[in-house]
Specification:
Elements (H helix, E strand, L loop, with lengths): L1 H6 L15 H8 L2 H8 L16 H8 L2 H8 L16 H7 L3 H26 L4 E2 L2 E2 L2 H14 L1
Antiparallel strand pairs: 1-2
Helix pairs in contact: 2-3, 2-4, 3-5, 4-5, 4-6, 5-7, 6-7, 7-8
Length: about 150
């Protein structure tokens, strides 16, 4: 059914219901991996759309423990893993609050990778190779963040 709708001309793939949820948000919320893949492959689908409460597809799926969908969304460049909803909850805090440990680990790894790459970019821009604003770059920071990031990405 979804494939038929996606093939039809004039279908708004980012349409919103009364609560501002898109088809991607709804599919992510219930962990429907196949539908999420189909939608993410289409132009015009915002993978980081917010509903009226500020929830994104990532926050829905992480909070509900759908690891495969979390991985699909984190692979998209335009998904903010640290977005907050109207209650200042992030996907990571929603996963932690619901005891969804695998999703929590995926999000923590992504956040560590972002911080590590951000720190490295700051170093390169400043022309420094061994120090960052808050102190020394420890080899253990790099060793911890990079392999985990590679596994997530």
């Amino acid at each position: 059914m979804v494939k038929l709708l996606l093939a039809k001309d004039g279908v708004d793939l980012d349409s919103k219901d009364k609560d501002g949820r898109t088809p991607l948000s709804l599919a992510a919320r219930i962990g429907h991996e196949a539908v999420v893949k189909l939608l993410l492959a289409k132009d015009g689908v915002d993978p980081d759309s917010e509903d009226i409460c500020g929830r994104t597809p990532l926050s829905y799926t992480a909070g509900n423990g759908h690891e495969a969908v979390v991985e699909l969304l984190l692979a998209k460049d335009d998904v903010d893993p640290d977005s907050t909803n109207d209650e200042d909850r992030t996907p990571l805090s929603l996963a932690a609050g619901n005891g969804v440990w695998k999703c929590l680990e995926l999000l923590r790894a992504m956040m560590a990778a972002i911080k590590w790459f951000s720190d490295r970019m700051w170093l390169n821009v400043r022309g420094k190779s061994c120090r960052r604003a808050e102190g020394d770059v420890r080899k253990s920071d790099e060793e911890a963040a990079l392999p985990v990031a590679v596994n997530v990405l």
